[in-house]
Amino acid sequence: MTEPWVVRYDGYEPEDEGRRESLCTVGNGYFATRGAAAESSPDGVRYPGTYAAGVYNRLQDRIEGRTVENESLVNLPNWLATRFRIDGGPWFDIDRTEILEYHQELDLRRAVLTRRFRARDDAGRTTPSPNAAW
User: Fold this and answer.
1) CA-CA to 78 of 20 to 30 Å: which in 13, 39, 43, 51?
2) Is 20 strand, coil or helix?
3) Is 80 inside any structural domain?
4) How many domains is the chain partitioned into structurally?
5) Residue 132, in any domain of the structure
6) pLDDT at site 129
7) Is residue 42 part of a domain?
8) Measured between alpha carbons, how far is residue 86 from residues 51, 53, 93 in Å?
9) What is the CATH number of the domain that holds 100?
């Protein structure tokens, strides 16, 4: 069943993460956070970002003899940063893990972004466990 107020992505596509982050940004007109995975960091595709209305960086550039002033939104510190590892193993990296299931959903009516996934590490452990409630 299609829900008109829900944007849903099934399956993990690393090359599409930047677009998904943009389209899944959640904000209230004063403060907004890109829909980046909590464990992600800027890497050329992913760009976790938090922005506040009125917080700009004003710079001047000299172009063909004229001074041009630009204002750009400032990317505030990433408050989503979450890292985890299992039993002292390597830190989780979604791009170095076997993805068993991946679902991302933005409920536009409630302004709630949800991401659920199951992954298997090199030791054969799954995260979350196969019997976890979805």
Assistant:
1) 13
2) helix
3) yes
4) 1
5) no
6) 54
7) yes
8) 32, 39, 12
9) 2.70.98.40
* Residue range(s) defining the domain that contains residue 67: 6-127
Q: Which helix (H) or strand (E) holds 129?
A: none
97, 124 Cβ separation under 8 angstroms: no
Three-state secondary-structure class, residue 56 = strand
Residue 10 has pLDDT above 90, yes or no: yes
Q: Which residues contact 13 (CB under 8 A, 6 or more apart)?
A: none
At residue 115, what is the residue type?
R
Band of residue 134 on the pLDDT scale cut at 50, 70, 90: very low
User: Which residue type is seen at 129?
Assistant: S
What does pTM read for this prediction?
0.78
**Residue 8 pLDDT:** 95
Residue 124 pLDDT > 60: yes
Closest CA to 27 of 95, 119, 106: 106
